């Protein structure tokens, strides 16, 4: 049977979020109803609210989520009632052209729930990243559920569902950071600091963290494993590049990560890497941004430039591993939880995020 729960929606572009009653339908054969325990407030949710991703309002926001499986469709085999899960938006299909050639991290046809969640009047909701979990319960496909250690803090575990995994994977998976290498990360929000922490976990010995905000630079060194930090406020792009190179014998780093996705940070990341170095772009640009560098520099510097989609992660492989590493004290996942808030505090959390006052506000449900 369907059920009514409380959820948070963006009804139209330019308006604040609303706390409303939503309807969770009875799950289809491969669907799962998850009782949400915690959901992080991600910049992607703000982008949905502001109409920067799509125009399919109203949106049911929220996607960085941990919770417990509450009910399942009659064909579900992947999870069972009572399982503690982190939700993911890359539910590998196994059938698309990427999956057929073994490149499952780039699955082009991820699974989603077979039925829409709705407002009480029947208006269909578009779930953020196919999840929609600023709600007491949400409906997803069974493959969107990844089982992890149930002893983990849900507020920490849920952050692997998007931003933290994106940054961590940008360093470990896309950038393939190796022991003894040098890394520079540009932009120290949650994604960038996760890239710093990922580089440290991978064994990089020089990790340069760059941001305009001194508070974030301090956090990178004190809590996330950076060996050096450059507060770039008041510096030109070339001065930042020179500062990174000065920390690496004048050559530049083996790997750079642009965790912002705008022309200035992209350029800094491009020119701060050594010849034949690897650059990763994990910051998401807006629809009008352009990258402009001389073609001869693209050719002449060699190496690679790669975008990181979801940190090139495989949720079934990566989520349980990083939860375990956190619980062993080897990865600082819990350090990304800046505050724990209620469902009525999301609009204020967006404001704090825009000011750079938090890494992640996490909505907790009783």
From TrEMBL:
Keywords annotated in UniProt: Metal-binding, NAD, Oxidoreductase, Zinc
Protein name: S-(Hydroxymethyl)mycothiol dehydrogenase
Domain Enoyl reductase (ER): 14-363
Family annotation (NCBIfam families): mycoS_dep_FDH
Metal-binding as UniProt keyword: yes
GO cellular component, one term: cytosol
Cofactor: Zn(2+)
EC number(s) stated in the UniProt entry for this protein: 1.1.1.306
InterPro entries: ADH-like_C, ADH-like_N, ADH_Zn_CS, ER, GroES-like_sf, MycoS_dep_FDH, NAD(P)-bd_dom_sf
Family listed: Belongs to the zinc-containing alcohol dehydrogenase family.
UniProt-listed PANTHER family: ALCOHOL DEHYDROGENASE, ALCOHOL DEHYDROGENASE CLASS-3
Gene3D superfamilies for the chain: Medium-chain alcohol dehydrogenases, catalytic domain (3.90.180.10), NAD(P)-binding Rossmann-like Domain (3.40.50.720)
Coiled-coil intervals: none
MF terms in GO: mycothiol-dependent formaldehyde dehydrogenase activity; S-(hydroxymethyl)glutathione dehydrogenase [NAD(P)+] activity; zinc ion binding
Keyword Oxidoreductase applies: yes
Enzyme class of the recorded protein, top EC level: oxidoreductase
BP terms from Gene Ontology: formaldehyde catabolic process
């Amino acid at each position: 049977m369907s059920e009514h729960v409380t959820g948070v929606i963006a009804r139209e572009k330019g308006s604040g979020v609303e706390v409303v009653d939503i309807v969770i339908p009875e799950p289809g054969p491969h669907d799962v109803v998850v009782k949400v325990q915690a959901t992080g407030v991600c910049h992607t949710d703000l982008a949905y609210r502001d109409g920067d991703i799509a125009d399919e309002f109203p949106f049911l926001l929220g996607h960085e989520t941990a919770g417990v499986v509450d009910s399942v469709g009659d064909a579900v085999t992947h999870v069972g009632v009572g399982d503690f899960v982190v939700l993911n938006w890359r539910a590998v299909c196994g059938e698309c052209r990427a999956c057929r050639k073994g490149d499952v991290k780039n699955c082009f046809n991820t699974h989603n729930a077979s039925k829409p969640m709705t407002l009480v009047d029947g208006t269909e909701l578009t779930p953020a990243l196919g999840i929609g979990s600023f709600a007491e319960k949400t409906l997803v496909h069974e493959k969107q559920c990844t089982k992890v250690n149930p002893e983990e803090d849900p507020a920490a575990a849920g952050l692997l569902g998007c931003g933290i995994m994106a940054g961590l994977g940008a360093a470990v998976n896309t950038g393939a950071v190796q022991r003894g290498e040098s890394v520079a990360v540009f932009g120290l929000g949650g994604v960038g600091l996760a890239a710093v922490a990922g580089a440290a976990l991978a064994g990089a010995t020089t990790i340069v963290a760059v941001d305009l905000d001194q508070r974030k630079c301090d956090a990178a060194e004190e809590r996330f494993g950076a060996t050096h930090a450059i507060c770039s406020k008041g510096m030109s792009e070339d001065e930042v590049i020179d500062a990174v190179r000065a920390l690496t014998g004048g050559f530049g780093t083996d790997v750079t990560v642009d965790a912002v996705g705008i022309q200035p940070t992209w350029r800094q990341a491009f020119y701060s890497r050594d010849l034949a170095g690897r650059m990763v772009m994990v910051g998401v640009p807006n629809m009008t941004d352009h990258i402009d560098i001389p073609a001869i520099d693209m050719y002449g510097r060699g190496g690679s430039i790669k975008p990181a989609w979801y940190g090139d992660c495989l949720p079934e492989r990566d989520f349980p591993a990083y939860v375990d590493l956190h619980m062993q004290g080897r990865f600082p996942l819990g350090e990304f939880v800046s505050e724990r808030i209620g469902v009525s505090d999301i609009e204020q959390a967006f404001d704090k995020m825009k000011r750079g006052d938090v890494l992640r506000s996490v909505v907790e449900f009783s």
